Model the fold of this input.
Amino acid sequence: MTTSIHTTNAAMAASSSGGPTSAGGPANDALVIADRTFTSRLVVGTGKYPSHAVMQAAHIASGTEMVTVAVRRVDLAAKGEGSLLHWINREKIFLLPNTAGCYTADDAIRTARLGREAGLSNWVKLEVIGDEQTLFPDNEALIEATAGWCCPTPTTIRSPAASWPTPVPLPSCRWARQLDQVSAFRIRTTC
Done:
């Protein structure tokens, strides 16, 4: 299944005619990803806060509707206030697990699958670290991880048809040179 990302600009006419707007733009300028609609485009993380309470206050004050969380930081055995997830209102804030701390494509895929199987989300923000000092990404490994996450095997990519019926063979999983032919905004919500 291919999911598109688009925005709605229904309020553009209202804003140009003096209608209601917010500081971020038109009041109805929504971000739609798959079956989710977000009114805030701000994505906030869960790391580097001095406490879970400060993190929660920052999320509320920012008005974010999506937060990223490193799958490796989530202690699934923790309960109550000791759990990071306890401090995130999942009725109002969408949880986007990420693969922070991964240095290889295989590790990122494994971590993404762990997040999905733990019930965090079917969505993932893939990250593969290429430089330990700067934390810049390893772009080639990130593309390899993306192919591994979206494809049933490392050597196939599914047909772009709406139903994804037939796998299409690729010469190899290292298709970085073909990136311009692949939609960078294609998000898989299921595997």
In short: The mean pLDDT is 75. The beta strands are 5-7, 21-22, 25-26, 31-33, 36-38, 43-44, 66-70, 94-98, 156-158, 167-169.
